[in-house]
Amino acid sequence: MTPLKCCDSISLSSIILPRSRGGAEMGWQNAIELVVGLHALAMFMTYPLLQQYVHQSLTMRVRSLHLSVKQAVQRETSRFLLHSELCFLLPGLVSSLFLVSYSDWRGRKAAIVPPLVGDLLFTLTYFVVSRFSLSLGYLLGASFLAGILGGPGSLIGGCFCYVADRSAEGPPESRTVRMARLDAVLGTLSGLGSLCTGFYVRAAGFSWPFLSASALHLLNLLYVLAILQEPSARPGHGPAPNQFPQVSKLGGMSMVILYELNAPLCWSEVLIGYGAALSTLIYLSSFAGVAVLSRWLPDPCITLLGMFSLASGLCLAAFAKTTLLMFLVRLPLLLSIMPAPVMRSMMSKLVRSSEQGTVFACVAFVEMLSMAVALPLFTSTYAATVSWFSGFSFLLAASLTLIPAILIGSTSFRQFGNVGMMSSVPIQCFLGR
């Protein structure tokens, strides 16, 4: 593929369908963005839906016990979601590390197919439970099974390995932009899925959206098995670099829906869908930011700029008490997704194509570990502070961004100093520009 020009317009079709280095479309047999897009559409039809379904189910139970409804429901919902996430994350830590590494030997589909099977079974379980009003305990079993089969960490890791394999012979900037494109597809289709969910729930209840998500997962699975071609890669293994902490982003953003359901906002399912759809601008603007800024700024500067965007948006969300202000929270977050694709690209450039699976297996493991730390930490914090300051979790997340920012900034400054003392080569050469 070729890097985007500054004046290029960004259409949905140009984001989803990749292009070769000569500029021609690579075809549907290599469109890994389609896999990510269908997965995002299905999962983000499900994710806000399951939070709202658990919230509604627990509301009915709490009312039957004559407890103080609002705060009790918030606490019970956050605790159940914590248990569900732990049932998913703990087995997912091991399985994602194994599956993505194994894809170096048996092809990238080895990391993509099992998570799709797990997601299909996960959404079918939610359909059955919501359709027949079964116990919420079955949902914990579905979460555990989805984690055993790899989960999104394995699938996204396998897709990024696929991108690294396909862009191995292109210029360095093309890999960064292609990975940013993959994140843009993820965000765009997730926002579309969340937007559809609000109207779908109002028209048909909870059961049929879960069944629709299952159909999308099945379609995605058939596409991967029957159409998607494996990239050429030789077996191998090698060392993997470290991934910067994502606890602040994962933890802070995981509390958004519960925060919007709580007073004084009290958003309906339609408003939650509008908010999620508006959040797609964050992914599109971050993609455009990477495509443009990678021409002039070194990767560490792009990463720090994205982290500042994240921290400022979280601080504003902590004090958002009106619907308008909560919608405006998305403005300072417009560049907050940039660090993820840039850091993945930096790491993938350090190893051979036959070692991409090992690298992204470690990335998936660290991201899953970050989720395992972030979700219990922020869910417990939210449950403990919702009665006196519901925005405290966002401030905590914003403060945690200082840790990776200091690490990245100090490392870059040290490298800059070493180059200045040891060589008279211009800094542009050191930064690869």
Automatic annotation (TrEMBL):
> Does the keyword Lyase feature in the UniProt annotation?
no
Q: What residue range is the signal peptide?
A: none
Q: Does the keyword Transport apply?
A: yes
Transmembrane regions:
31-50, 80-100, 112-132, 138-163, 184-201, 271-294, 301-319, 358-379, 385-408
- Provide the alphabetized UniProt keywords: Glycoprotein, Lysosome, Membrane, Symport, Transmembrane, Transmembrane helix, Transport
The main place the protein resides is membrane
Question: Which cell locations does it reside in?
Answer: Lysosome membrane
Some GO term, biological process aspect, for this entry: which one?
vacuolar transmembrane transport
Q: How does it sit in the membrane?
A: Multi-pass membrane protein
Annotated InterPro entries:
MFS_trans_sf
Which GO molecular function annotations are given, in alphabetical order?
A: symporter activity
- In terms of domain of life, where is this protein from? Eukaryota
A single GO CC term, please?
lysosomal membrane
Task: Give the protein name, as stated in the record.
Answer: Solute carrier family 46 member 3
Organism, scientific name = Electrophorus electricus (Electric eel)
